[in-house]
Amino acid sequence: MVQTTFWALKKHFEGFPKLSDFELKEAELPALNNGDVLLESVFLSVDPYMRPYSKLRMKEGDVMIGSQVARVVESKDPAYPVGTFVVAAAGWITRFVSRGKDLQRMTPDWPKELPRSLALGTIGMPGLTAYFGLFEVCKIKAGDTVLINSAAGAVGSVAGQIAKLAGCEVVGCAGSDAKVAFLKNLGFDAAFNYKTVGSLAEALKKASPNGYDCFFDNVGGEFSSVVLEQMKKYGRIAVCGAISLYNDQEIQKGPYVQLLMIRNELRMEGFLVTQWENRKEEGLKALLKWVMEGKIKWEEYVTEGFKNMPAAFLGMLKGDNTGKAIIKV
Ligand SMILES: NC(=O)c1ccc[n+]([C@@H]2O[C@H](COP(=O)([O-])OP(=O)(O)OC[C@H]3O[C@@H](n4cnc5c(N)ncnc54)[C@H](OP(=O)(O)O)[C@@H]3O)[C@@H](O)[C@H]2O)c1
């Protein structure tokens, strides 16, 4: 019998998650039937969506939702020989059995110089979110001024670099001076620390006195209300995430958006990256190519040890990470 270890959601989060909301558990996996494969997680991902989605999709006691890069260690499916690497969505678990259908095989010619963890970040779901959010929702074009918040994170850092590749002026905001330096190093035209600027409105004005054509919004809430006033005529807002609201226990009321939206004829569109599931290959190919050409730089914030997953999750929500937050088992 093969043992597995997993993190269960012990108690639904109330406000900011706590370490005591999680419980480390062990279980025995069933013997493999024909068509089954046994996989071992190599890298796991902690992502902001886990906070709101835990409420929507999980009950207490369930394995925490999430995805991993995993390796086939035993196989009764010739399509997945031992040693095959896949991206799976098996949750916070060290070993698991799959029937193959829910696995996304990693390309066998994955470049040796790239860590496979990038399949959870720059060349994975967050990279695709940046790619489709910019091209399909913001509809960026050369010369646009693009604003990105949470810009030093997994999605934001890729979004800023793609927008630069597309010929845009890019402004980024992040929560520390070290992150701001990181953004400038990535080629952002302007960047500032939203926690220390005093007036967000003034900092936005200084970074782009004529306003913004596109706003790739990862944060939501009050931040977004301030930005709305500085959108140019026909501006496009891609509502990607709202991390500033995920821990709220009561729905907040902000300024109403209608007058500004009408006056400047703005377009605001929420999206989920899964909308472009049928174009995933296109996006991953483009991201891999840009990474290999050195046009997109990647950064990871790696936590060692499966036992540290809850702490890594809390740390990511607080802003510990520059680039993608990853757990190395
Ligand atoms: N629509 C989709 O399909 C889709 C897919 C993936 C991700 N998303 C969303 O995109 C956003 C970024 O995700 P990610 O994976 O790239 O995460 P990330 O940016 O790598 O990590 C989260 C970051 O959020 C920032 N943050 C936390 N609380 C904040 C607050 N109150 N105000 C401003 N910033 C705050 C922190 O950075 P600072 O130090 O800068 O504060 C933290 O590092 C999230 O909102 C996520 O839900 C959406």
UniProtKB/TrEMBL annotation:
<dbReference type="Pfam" id="PF16884">
    <property type="entry name" value="ADH_N_2"/>
</dbReference>
<dbReference type="InterPro" id="IPR036291">
    <property type="entry name" value="NAD(P)-bd_dom_sf"/>
</dbReference>
<keyword id="KW-0007">Acetylation</keyword>
<keyword id="KW-0597">Phosphoprotein</keyword>
<dbReference type="InterPro" id="IPR013149">
    <property type="entry name" value="ADH-like_C"/>
</dbReference>
<dbReference type="InterPro" id="IPR045010">
    <property type="entry name" value="MDR_fam"/>
</dbReference>
<comment type="subunit">
    <text>Monomer or homodimer.</text>
</comment>
<keyword id="KW-0521">NADP</keyword>
<keyword id="KW-0963">Cytoplasm</keyword>
<feature type="domain" description="Enoyl reductase (ER)">
    <location>
        <begin position="15"/>
        <end position="327"/>
    </location>
</feature>
<keyword id="KW-0379">Hydroxylation</keyword>
<dbReference type="InterPro" id="IPR011032">
    <property type="entry name" value="GroES-like_sf"/>
</dbReference>
<comment type="similarity">
    <text>Belongs to the NADP-dependent oxidoreductase L4BD family.</text>
</comment>
<protein>
    <recommendedName>
        <fullName>Prostaglandin reductase 1</fullName>
        <ecNumber>1.3.1.48</ecNumber>
        <ecNumber>1.3.1.74</ecNumber>
    </recommendedName>
</protein>
<dbReference type="InterPro" id="IPR041694">
    <property type="entry name" value="ADH_N_2"/>
</dbReference>
<keyword id="KW-0276">Fatty acid metabolism</keyword>
<keyword id="KW-0443">Lipid metabolism</keyword>
<keyword id="KW-0644">Prostaglandin metabolism</keyword>
<dbReference type="InterPro" id="IPR020843">
    <property type="entry name" value="ER"/>
</dbReference>
<dbReference type="InterPro" id="IPR014190">
    <property type="entry name" value="PTGR1"/>
</dbReference>
<dbReference type="Pfam" id="PF00107">
    <property type="entry name" value="ADH_zinc_N"/>
</dbReference>
<keyword id="KW-0560">Oxidoreductase</keyword>
